[in-house]
Amino acid sequence: MSLPVVAAALMVVLAFFLTRVVNWVWIKPKKLESYLRRQGLPGTPYTPLVGDVKRNVNMLMEARSKPITLTDDITPRLLPLALKMFNSHGRTFFIWLGPVPTIMITNPEHIKEVFSKVYDFEKNASFPLVKLLVGGLASYKGDKWARHRRIINPAFHLEKIKNMVPAFYHCCSEVVGKWDKLVLDKGLSCEVDVWPWLVSMTADVISHAAFGSSYREGQRIFELQGELSSLIAQELKKPYIPGLSFFPTKNNKRMKAIDKEIDIILRGMVSKREAGEAEHNDLLGILLASSSEESGGSGMSIEEVMRECKLFYFAGQETTSVLLVWTMILLSHHQDWQERAREEVRQILGDNINAKPDIDSLNNLKVMTMIFYEVLRLYPPVAELRRTVNKEMKLGEITLPAGVRVYIPTALVHRDPDLWGEDAGEFKPERFKDGISKATKNQVCYLPFGWGLRICIGQNFSLLEAKMAMALILQRFSFELSPSYVHSPQIVMTTRPQFGAHLILHKL
Ligand code: HEM
Question: Which of 456, 461, 464 to mutate to test the pocket of ligand 1 (most atoms within 8 A of CB)?
Answer without folding.
Answer: 456
